[in-house]
Design a protein that fits this description.
alpha/beta; 22% strand
Length: 326
């Protein structure tokens, strides 16, 4: 028997006996003890964004703005001007679609120290188009002064949150609640804003991946190795600032380059890597794997990833096709 975990992640189901730690919420509480200026705001989504843990320990530093995301962003800007460090919470799509003007004019333009923490990235919700953020990275990376960070899973959440808190200026932190606990043998991954991270080595192909797609890419690389195809996987946890040297150096070593993102292929990681390669004078067989120029539908993450070509099998086929035609 399985249970849905919470309103904010309809795709996360586990057996009744398994409890998934709130990796993000726990880190927020740790930072609350360490940074007295840190305050938390939510658009009526406390449990779904794990900031209920902070609320229960620091009630005087927790603020509910209701389902009024644009107003919430404006409030956070005023708090930042007063010396606070606001961590602002809602679903990713409500930042990029509902609050863009306020984010641009009240946070990014004055370069304020506000951290926008968006949950339900890409195709990770049953609620369909209204809740699927497939263009948020493209929008956020186009804003001057805005840093864009997406950890690759539970093992990198704490370091991502700490990096966002330490960064002076606005940050868009794109987060996905894990659907299973970390394995006891898993090592925590560091995160330094603006620094790419090589997870596997290979010279036949390189996959530059973000967020949810990092583990998909690692699985594809593992299966391709069984066929004698060596694939490097680079974790681009920092879309902006982008580690262009990392991308260029690893692309030069590989025969083909693929990007993998839980986001539209337009304007996000794929576009950023293509721009980097062209401006850096590196010519390689290249393919963007992500959501094509389409809206999706409601469904489990696995169903949607299979339907829209974001699974390991599709990645493997993409790389094999590029190598065959090289």
């Amino acid at each position: 028997m399985t249970n849905n975990l919470h309103l904010g992640d309809f795709t996360s189901t586990v057996s009744d006996s398994v409890t998934i730690p709130k990796y993000y919420g726990d880190t927020l509480v740790k930072l609350g003890h360490e940074i007295p200026e840190l305050v938390v705001l939510t658009g009526d989504l406390s449990p779904a964004t794990e900031c209920d843990l902070f609320r229960d320990i620091f009630p005087d530093r927790f603020f509910t703005a209701g389902i009024a995301e644009a107003n919430m962003v404006g409030i956070s800007a005023g708090m930042a001007r007063s010396g606070d460090i606001p961590f602002v919470h809602t679903f990713s799509v409500f930042f990029s679609r509902r609050s863009l003007d306020q984010i641009a004019m009240q946070v990014a333009y004055p370069n304020l120290n506000v951290k926008l923490c968006g949950f339900l990235p890409g195709l990770t919700t049953l609620l369909g188009v209204s809740h699927q953020a497939i263009e948020d990275n493209a929008i956020m990376r186009s804003l001057p002064n805005m840093a864009v960070i997406e950890p690759c899973g539970a093992r990198q959440i704490e370091s991502a949150v700490r990096a966002a808190a330490a960064h002076e200026g606005p940050v868009y932190l794109r987060l996905h609640r894990p659907s299973k606990p970390m394995e006891p043998t898993e090592q925590l991954l560091p995160l330094e804003i603006g620094q790419g991270q090589l997870l596997t080595e290979g010279t036949d192909a390189v996959i530059f991946a973000m967020g949810h797609m990092v583990d998909v890419s690692l699985d594809a690389a593992k299966n391709l190795l069984k066929r004698g195809i060596k694939v490097a996987v680079g974790n681009i946890h920092s879309l902006k600032p982008l580690d262009t040297n990392f991308i260029l150096e690893n692309s030069k070593r590989a025969s083909v380059v693929v990007t993998a993102e839980n986001h539209s292929v337009i304007g996000g990681l794929g576009s950023a890597v293509a721009e980097t390669l062209l401006e850096g004078g590196v010519s390689r067989k290249f393919k963007r794997v992500g959501i094509e120029d389409t809206f999706a539908e409601g469904g489990s993450t696995q169903f949607l990833f299979d339907k829209y070509g974001l699974n390991s099998r599709h990645l493997q086929n993409t790389i094999r096709s590029l190598l065959i035609n090289d």
